[in-house]
């Protein structure tokens, strides 16, 4: 079965980001496929390289980056949601004349078309967060 995972919740509250990550790991462990993980609305906070969680908590940004690196699953953050929250790749930082990018390693910024494509290509779309 092919899954798309939609992450909409703030990474530092309610655990929706880490719940989505654990679900994604379980999906792969069961032999299924993940077409794409799409971060939308407050969920794009999981792609913010500048976020610093408390030392006694799991770092969702680092955890997702590692997941993307080891699994090869595409991690896409919504461009409109990212821009509102100051999460930029090199292209957007240059476009808006900002000093540097702030997107975490392993993430790409793209539009909602990537979510629509993922929904059409997947058997199941699972959403986490508000």
Give your account of this protein's structure.
By secondary structure, the chain is an alpha/beta fold. The chain has a single domain, classed as DsrEFH-like (Hypothetical Protein Ychn, Chain: A, 3-Layer(aba) Sandwich), CATH 3.40.1260. It is 36% helix and 20% strand. A five-stranded parallel beta sheet has the order 4-3-2-1-5, with helices on both faces. Helix 2 (60-71) links the parallel strand 2 (33-39) and strand 3 (75-78). The two termini are 25 Å apart. The relative contact order is 0.27.
Short synopsis of the structure:
This protein is α/β, with parallel strands linked by helices.
Fold topology:
Elements (H helix, E strand, L loop, with lengths): L1 E6 L8 H14 L3 E7 L20 H12 L3 E4 H6 L5 H6 L11 E4 L2 H9 L2 E5 L2
Parallel strand pairs: 1-2, 1-5, 2-3, 3-4
Q: Helical region count?
A: 5
Overall number of structural domains: 1
Model regions low in confidence, pLDDT < 50 over at least 5 residues: none
Rg over CA atoms: 14 Å
The helix/strand order is EHEHEHHEHE
Mean pLDDT: 95
CATH class equals Alpha Beta
Which keywords apply here?
130 residues, alpha/beta, 5 helices, 36% helix
């Amino acid at each position: 079965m092919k899954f798309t995972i939609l992450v909409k919740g703030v990474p530092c509250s309610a655990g929706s980001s880490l719940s989505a990550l654990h679900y994604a790991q379980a999906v792969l462990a069961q032999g299924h496929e993940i077409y794409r993980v799409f971060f939308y609305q407050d969920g794009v906070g999981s792609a913010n390289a500048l976020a610093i969680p408390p030392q006694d908590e799991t770092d969702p940004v680092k955890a997702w980056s590692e997941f993307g690196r080891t699994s090869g699953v595409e991690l896409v953050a919504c461009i409109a949601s990212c821009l509102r929250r100051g999460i930029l790749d090199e292209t957007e930082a240059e476009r808006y004349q900002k000093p540097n990018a702030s997107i975490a390693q392993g993430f790409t910024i793209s539009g909602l078309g990537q979510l629509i494509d993922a929904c059409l290509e997947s058997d199941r779309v699972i959403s986490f967060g508000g």
